Every structure is written in C-alpha cells, then in structure tokens.
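Morning!

This is the sequence you dropped in the shared folder:
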Amino acid sequence: MKKRTKLWAMVLSTVLLLSLLTATALAAPLTNIDTTANGESASPDASPKPAEKLPKEKTAAVIFVAAEETHYAAPDSVVYNNGGLVYNNGATVYNNAGTVYNNNGTVYNNDGTIYANGGVVYNNTGNVFDNGAEIYSQSGDVRGIEMAGAFKLELNNDLRAYLNIDNAVEGEPIYIKEGESLGFSPKEGYNILSADVSSGELLSNKFGNYTLSNLTEDAVLNIQIKPLPPVMSLESGSYFSAQKLTISAGENAEIYYTTDGSEPDENSLKYTQPITISESTAVKAVSVSRGLEVSDISSADIGILEVTVPEFEKKAEGYPLIEALPVVVKNSGTIEAEIKSADIEGDSSESFVLTHHSGQKIAAGRTVDDYWTVRPEGGLKVGNYNAKLVLTTVNGEKAEFKLSFQVESNNK
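The structure's back. Tokens below.
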C-alpha cells in the first residue's frame, strides 16, 4: 500500500513538472519581436473599452496567465499572457493571443487584442483599439500597427521635417480614417511647389494649405518643397552708422552668404551670428535644407555713410558775411549709397543757409564735399543760434547733426 502511494506521488509530481514546463514554453516571449510589422486591423465597429482599475490585491513578480484566466497586473511585475485577459497597470506584458487593457505599461503583443491607454505597445499582427486619442491610443505610444478602417499615407521623400501635418506623430506612420480628411501646409520658411496624390482628392487654397480626402486605398503623396529665401533684418538702403544684420530662415535650414557680390552656395560663408556692417556692403544669402534644392537668393545692399558738419567760430555783432562751409559725406564701401534730402530744422533754423535741399548719390569709395554747404545768415543779433542738419536716405533712415553759431557784443 505504501509503495502504491509513493508511486502515485511520483507520477503526480512528474505531471505537474511537465505542465509547468509546457506553460512556461507557451508563455515565453518571442525572441525576435518585430516592432514594425503591420498588424491586422480591428473592425471599425469595435467599441473601445476603458481600462480597468488596478485591484487592491497584490500579485507576484512574475505571472503566467493561461487561457480563459483573468489577471490584474501590478506595477513592476512581468506577465506572460497565453490566451487570457490581463488588465495591465504599469507591468510588462508579453501577450500571446490574449486580450490586454494597458494602463501605462509595456505590452509585447503577438496576435492579441490591446486596449492602449498611455502605455507602449509593440504590436505584431494583433488588433489595437483606440480609446479616444486622435491616432492610435489615448496618450500612448503604439508601434507597428495598422489602424482599423484607415488608409496609410506615404511621402515620396523624407519631407515631414518641412510640413505641418494634422495630428501626425513624429516617427509614426500617417493614417487617414475612412471618410475623413487630412490637412497639411508648409512650415514657415518653406513653399510647396507642387503636390499630387496617387489616390483620393487633393485641394489647396491661396494661402498654401492643402486638404487630402476621399482615399480609397493606401496612397503616396508626391510633393515638391523648396525653402524660401532667407529674411534679412535690414532692407537695402543707406545708413549713418555701423549696422547689425540678422539673417533668418525656416526650421531645419542652414544659411550661407557672401559679402563680395558673388552668388552664395553651400561652399560660401555659413551664417552663425549677426553680421556687423561697418562699410557699404552687398550681402547675398541662400537657405539650404537637406533633400531640397537651394532657395532663391535674397540680397541687401547696405550703404554706410560717414557725415561731418562744419563748425563756425563765434563772431562779434556786425560781422561780415561768413563763407559757406561744406558738409562732408564719405562712402568707404563697395556699393553706392544715396541721400534723398537735406534740411535744417530747429528753433534757429532760419538763421542758417543750406545750399541744397535735394539728395545726392555717393559712389562706392567716394567722398562728397562740394554739394551741400551751410553758413550762418549775415547780420544776426547778439546771441546763441542752434539748429540741426537733418539728412534722410532713400530708405527713410534719418540722422541729425548739430549746427551752432554765436554772436558776441562789441562791448566785450
């Protein structure tokens, strides 16, 4: 009798050991999980289910869930789900043909069904149900899936860096749900030259916004984008002091420029910080973006003028007529500069005489000292006379230069 009991115990132990080994083998995760494989799309009529809350009871660190079993996975635990139902709250779940409600956990899914709410799902041929998020999951990151009732959109080149695409997630495929539309537009600093799609309807407006709709199958968007010319902080014109020139371009673009009049390209000076313009200079720049043709050239001819006004000695009353003295304007750069007008303003403006109020062009490297002259009026009474010479360039830049003259009494 004792021998029979001992024999039955050995048989039972062997069966339990084989069962445990079989369960372990079934539950083991795939050794080479494909995080990019396309899964089978869930039915469009499938209703998303809210994730269940974690029950109060504690669970073991490593759990094996068999078919038809239900398990609530606690944080930091590891669950191997073989056909069962797992409510995942922060655990790592290897799902083999089961159903998982995922809350902030990580799920490796093999032919199962996932309700993803804030977790990370690596899904291989399984179904992923969307719980209220715009694309794949509710604040989750679901990788390697095909959306239910949606068509995949691919770009002819890697151009997403230059586009604003509605509801697109960086690094994830672009899907358009059946019956819905997708809007896209160029990012600031870029222009869409042409666009067409292999399936569906593509419309655009005068503002450069596009809408893609009525897809009937997966589609390819063929699009041509070009960076806009760089934007310069200074317009072409003349200035009376050294200037800081800032050049800007679109996101992900680099700027190259020249200051010798030549056309810039990728081998020209690379713009990294504002440029100080201390003499008349022609600046040309282009935007360069990876995978796109170089932008058109933007340019600014920046003239820098140095102005010197005359100083008059004080005179006693009854002084003779004073000789007019020149206003000296120097252009030491490589391009032409121009003054549009000259005027005398201030309380004593009528006490000075200016020969020319009109403008004048100053050639590169030239100094003008024979066009504008100024002198005090004759016969002024005892006193101090102050005014200002106002010069205005063709681009509206103004500069004021002080004029002063003093008449003393003969009794001194």
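Headline: The two ends are 149 Å apart (CA to CA).

More detail when I'm at my desk.
O.
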